[in-house]
Amino acid sequence: MEDSKGSDDELNISPAFPIDDVNTDQEVIQYLQGVRSEASAMNHILYHEREDHIIVQDHHTPIHSEPTVTDVKFHTWSTQLIHNFKVLKERIRTQDQNTISYDTIYSLKWKTAFKNSPPDINYFVYALDRKLCFDILVELTKRLSITMKETFGQWLWKVFLKLDNILEASECAILRDLAKTAIKLKSKLDESTTVANSIAGYTFDMIIAIVGLYYGQSDLLQG
After folding, report:
1. Which one, of 221, 1, 222, 7, lies nearest residue 110 by Cα?
2. Which InterPro entries match (predicted)?
């Protein structure tokens, strides 16, 4: 991350395509509310056993076989999460670009942006390039905590919706660092006698499930 991103300088982003609020973004919000309610019933992270090892090759991560399921409840929850995640990604990919328009250009302030709700999903899809999305993941990894607000999860969710699962080695490393941080913080949250944050707990579970299952890093699901 360049030093300029550590300041509060604005990064003006000009969308490659016109952008507007569309149904997709509302569905993202509604779905997050639903899965957060389901996740609130989970008291701790439930892990999978894996059958194979993950090897990061020179440029891209390979396709992995599904890990062996050892907990039916986690399998059901995570399977539904990934299913809905893929459905939303497909809807975003196939939406008619001719019907999309925008009113303003979003300005990203690195010090304060993540405390507020993220812009419309189409800003992520059409205005942010891939490298900037991974830069955002690096920043969010640094800022994760057991007392974080729901806006962090919203930013992460939309970045995940933007990024496909064909990864270069450096991109894979960023996602793994994010998931490892979430695992450590989830354990810390579970052990805390003073902090009860269901939003943080859901966000950690969401990170671990998506990085482990969608982005193929299933070894991170092993306890």
Report:
1. 7
2. Gemin2/Brr1
Q: What is the predicted pLDDT for the residue at 99?
A: 72
Q: In terms of Cα–Cα distance, which of 164, 138, 141 is closest to 216?
A: 164
Residues 45, 217: Cα–Cα separation, whole Å: 16
Name the pLDDT band for 196 (thresholds 50, 70, 90). Answer: confident
Give me the count of residues in the chain. 223
Query: Above 80 in pLDDT, residue 223?
Result: no
Report in angstroms the alpha-carbon separations of 21 from 87, 100, 108, 121, 201.
19, 8, 18, 8, 29
Question: Comparing C-alpha atoms, which of 91, 54, 86 is closest to residue 160?
Answer: 86
Asked if 209 and 162 touch (Cβ cutoff 8 Å), the reply is no
Spell out the domains of the chain, with CATH numbers in brackets.
16-39+95-223 (1.20.58.1070)
